[in-house]
Design a protein that fits this description.
Strand content of chain A: 15-25%
Radius of gyration of chain A: 25 Å
Number of helices of chain B: 5
Radius of gyration of chain B: 19 Å
Helix content of chain B: 25-40%
CATH topology of the largest domain in chain A: Rossmann fold
Mean pLDDT of chain A: 95
Number of domains of chain A: 3
Shape of chain A: globular
Structural class of chain B: alpha+beta
Helix content of chain A: 25-40%
Largest sheet of chain B: 5 strands, antiparallel
Oligomer: heterodimer
CATH architecture of the largest domain in chain A: 3-Layer(aba) Sandwich
Strand content of chain B: 35-45%
CATH class of the largest domain in chain B: Alpha Beta
Structural class of chain A: alpha/beta
């Protein structure tokens, strides 16, 4: 190459791969990256050091980086971005990636890789990242040529947020990050092969609306797809449910899509759903599934699931339709578009509404509601975990602050879902599909980064919280005032509950022995530690926790024997729920076939 | 009720695309009876995968929907469902033997329109194309005559008539 062409090539366009990467991220609107440095990604960290448009949050473990990005994404509707190094950095991120895949959270995970000439040589900190993450992501890329770099980044963002959102990995060999790379802006042309359907078929909409108008016992069952579609979809769902007068139930992932304070809300459904929601699902004649996937926690025993109903299933992912449950009217599209079309069609169509039957349906629902399935008795000194969550909800309501709740996984998660009310979407972050213990603290951290003035609370269990406890360090470093509200029953509560109900009360390895002193633990991480051991201390601890301007761990010592009810035992049908003692006698028998299920 | 489906999948000709398709089948517990892949459009970088699978109607519908949502997949077509189609595979069949067996093998190969592509005083390699049943039948006949080695491509398939699929 002659001297003149070499000079011409070294223009401002001719920057290192790492700089081109950051430029592409900036064009995609990225403001925050959650990451952890290492050898293979040093060029990216060097480029980050020399710019101000993207903020980097240093986590303490790569799994937490992904969960933090999930919290960020789920609370804002934006794509969460993660940066980890090669080898162990990438493998540590895998749990978070699968979590995001199961719950359809848009994530971009940038992983370092050994230089291209060393790939396949078992080099230091080499792992086959694209091989390992293939079933853990919606899609993944290995950038082998500098000229592909910017295009791959734009492509990855499009894939992560389009259709059913999900995590996308971009594996970046170190030489690609160092060598100059050309920049290409995001393309304006449609993607070559991936073009999900977002607008519903009007014929299906009409069919669905007429079926719903003629129904005698309808129900709307809404899931995370409504949340993923954006806040407008939740508004449209609320409008649709109110204009139809139908009962509405939300899945665990859908909490907040329809306001919990609305009289037409019949609670969450499924394994730990309300008595009324599950019996409505069991007894309905037309079911509208809006953005949920007939997951096994929802359906219970499949061959007994809502046998008498016609089913309408609206989903952006055609593979969700007829996967578990055969449906009568499939509608492929974005929940917001589908709801807008259904509202319009409902107004236009003159099919008479079966008013009389629906009034009778509501009378029946009110009878089921009278069972008051979430009732509990708080008496004496021992704090009931349900009471702790309920008081937390009531006190945050009184204070009127914008509140975001994350959870870990287990009994506390279910109590949070049952007793904390959500009236808006994007306020509830929980690991639904994968059930990842250790999700809540980093997720709350990501939420707090996105909403610095909001109240972010991780409702936790004493076992789960220890799985990512190191993130207390991140809270301290960035002064993130996240509140960790531990329902401490000294047991892996959900494991203990199943052992009690299904395995003859043989509590094999489910006792949380040798727990740390959470108050001292908080203090050692420069946070405030609080503890409530008796019922009359609870409110003061909650108020003090919220009032404190920095991070807090509140160790709420609760009844060790409490179980989550109602419960549809594994392998049972919706009408075979177990209720809390005093509401219904005895425990239904669980067959070996049922025990096989998780 | 299980059925067999021959599915044509047009994909981006890029690294890892075959692993995605195979991983989908193994990860979700679907059957692969046979699978073939080769580039079919060099300029547009398109490859065609033909996969033969069995399952219930619901499973086959799932397989197609799961394939279709892979990012590098352009088009999924169920040839079995969409109408009449041609299905062929290629086999190379080595038969080792002498005397009467050798004569009989050659006679049967002629009847089945298998071509002799290699011959020594003690062996033949036959090349044969056809549907799976025809190749199965020929191999069964070769077994007592000294069938020593067999390799088959798996099925490729295309719709009859003017109907065609494009990316």
């Amino acid at each position: 190459m002659s001297a003149t062409t070499a000079t011409a090539a070294a223009t401002t366009e001719d920057r290192s791969g790492a700089e081109v990467l950051l430029r592409a991220l900036t064009e995609q609107g990225v403001e925050v990256i959650f990451g952890y440095p290492g050898g293979a990604v040093l060029p990216i960290y060097d480029a980050l050091f020399q710019q101000n448009s993207i903020r980097h949050i240093l986590v303490r473990h790569e799994q937490a980086a992904v969960h933090a990005a999930e919290g960020y994404a789920r609370s804002t509707g934006r794509v969460g971005v993660v940066l980890v190094t090669s080898g162990p950095g990438a493998t540590n991120a895998v749990t978070g990636l699968v979590d995001a895949l199961m719950d359809s959270i848009p994530i971009i995970c940038l992983t370092g890789q050994v230089p291209t000439h060393l790939i396949g040589n078992d080099a230091f900190q080499e792992a086959d990242t694209t091989g390992i993450t293939r079933p853990a992501t919606k899609h993944n890329y290995l950038v082998k040529r500098s000229e592909d770099l910017a295009g791959v980044v734009h492509d990855a963002f499009y894939v992560a947020r389009s259709g059913r959102p999900g995590p996308v990995v971009i594996d970046l060999p170190k030489d690609i990050l160092i060598k100059p790379a050309p920049y290409t802006p995001a393309p304006s042309t449609p993607h070559r092969s991936y073009r999900p359907v977002t607008q519903p078929d009007p014929a299906r909409i009409l069919e669905a609306v007429q079926m719903l108008k003629r129904s005698a016992r309808p129900v709307v069952y809404a899931g995370g797809g409504v949340i993923n579609s954006g806040p407008e979809a939740s508004r449209l769902l609320t409008e649709f449910v109110r204009m139809t007068g139908f009962p509405c139930t939300n899945t665990l992932m859908g909490l907040g899509a329809f306001p919990s304070s609305d009289p037409q809300f019949i609670g969450m459904l499924g394994m730990h759903g309300t008595y009324e929601a599950n019996l409505v699902m069991h007894g309905c004649d037309v079911m509208l599934n809006m953005g949920a996937r007939f997951d096994d926690r929802i359906t219970g025993r499949l061959d007994a699931f809502s046998r008498g109903s016609k089913k309408i299933h609206a989903d952006i992912d055609p593979s969700s339709i007829n996967k578990n449950v055969k449906v009568d009217v499939p509608i492929v599209g974005d929940a917001g578009n589908i709801l807008a079309a259904m509202i319009e069609c409902w107004k236009q169509d003159d099919t008479p509404i079966n008013k009389e039957a629906q009034t009778a349906w509501w009378r029946q629902i009110d009878l089921w509601r009278q069972k008051d399935c979430l009732a509990y008795v708080q008496e004496g000194k021992i704090i009931k975990p349900q009471h702790a969550v309920k008081r937390l909800f009531e006190i945050t309501q009184e204070m009127g602050r914008e509140t975001f709740i994350s959870t870990e996984v287990g009994q506390h998660q279910m109590w949070a879902a049952q007793y904390f009310g959500f009236n808006k979407p994007n306020r509830w972050m929980t690991s639904g599909g994968l059930g990842t213990m250790g999700y809540g603290l980093p997720a709350a951290m990501g939420v707090q980064i996105a909403h610095p003035d909001a109240l972010c609370i991780d409702i936790a269990g004493e076992a789960s919280i220890l799985m990512n406890i190191q993130e207390m360090g991140t809270l301290a470093q960035y002064r993130l005032p996240v509140k960790v509200f531990i329902l401490n029953n000294e047991y892996m509560g959900m494991v203990r509950q199943w052992q009690e109900l299904l395995h003859g009360s043989r509590y094999s390895e489910s006792y949380s022995a040798a727990l740390p002193d959470f108050v001292k633990l908080a203090e050692s991480f420069h946070a405030k530690g609080l503890r409530a051991t008796e019922a009359d201390q609870l409110d003061d601890v909650i108020r003090e926790m919220i009032a404190h301007p920095g991070p807090v761990i509140a160790d709420i010592c609760v009844d060790q024997k409490e179980n989550v009810f109602p419960m549809i035992p594994s392998g049972a049908a919706h009408n075979e729920m177990i209720l809390a003692a005093g509401q219904q006698g005895g425990v239904a028998g669980v067959t070996d076939e049922g025990k096989v299920l998780v | 009720m299980e059925r067999t489906a021959t599915i044509a999948v047009l994909v981006e000709n890029e690294a890892g695309v075959l692993a995605r398709v195979i991983g989908l089948f193994s990860g979700r517990g679907y059957n692969i009876e046979s699978l073939t892949v080769a580039p079919v459009d060099e300029t547009r970088r398109i490859s065609r995968i033909t996969v033969v699978t069995t399952g219930t109607e619901m499973t086959i519908e799932q397989i197609k929907a799961q394939l279709d949502r892979l990012v590098p997949v352009h088009k999924v077509s169920d040839l079995t469902l969409d109408g009449a189609h041609l299905q062929r595979e290629l086999a190379l069949i080595k038969v080792v033997g002498r005397g009467e067996h050798r004569v009989e093998a050659l006679r049967l190969a002629d009847a089945f329109r298998a071509r002799v592509v290699d011959a020594t005083p003690e062996s033949f390699v036959f090349e044969m194309t056809g549907n799976a049943e025809k190749i199965d039948a020929f191999c069964a006949l070769m077994k007592p005559l000294g069938l020593a080695e067999l390799c088959r491509t798996g099925a490729v398939a295309i719709a009859r008539g003017t109907r065609h699929i494009a990316a």
